[in-house]
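Format notes (please read before filing issues)

Several people have asked whether sequences and structure tokens are stored in separate files. They are not. Every record keeps both together, in the order shown below: the sequence lines, then the token lines. Line labels are part of the format and must not be stripped during preprocessing.
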Amino acid sequence: MGKLGDMMNKAKQMAKGHPDQADKGVSGAERMVDDRTGNKYDAKTDKAADTVRRSYREGGGTPER
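Then the structure lines:
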């Protein structure tokens, strides 16, 4: 696995170990996109944020490649 894959795995492990902090980061990113796009894609950012949160909470998410 390359450096990007290693970094991604480390980020996933950190998020699983600190879900409250990860939630703050996801919420901040979602807010930033909504602000910059004038909420044009609000439904899509909500769906994406929920998917990301599920990936590190309760063992959910997509399988490792």
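For reference, the curators noted about this record: The longest helix spans residues 19-36. The helical segments are 3-17, 19-36, 42-56.
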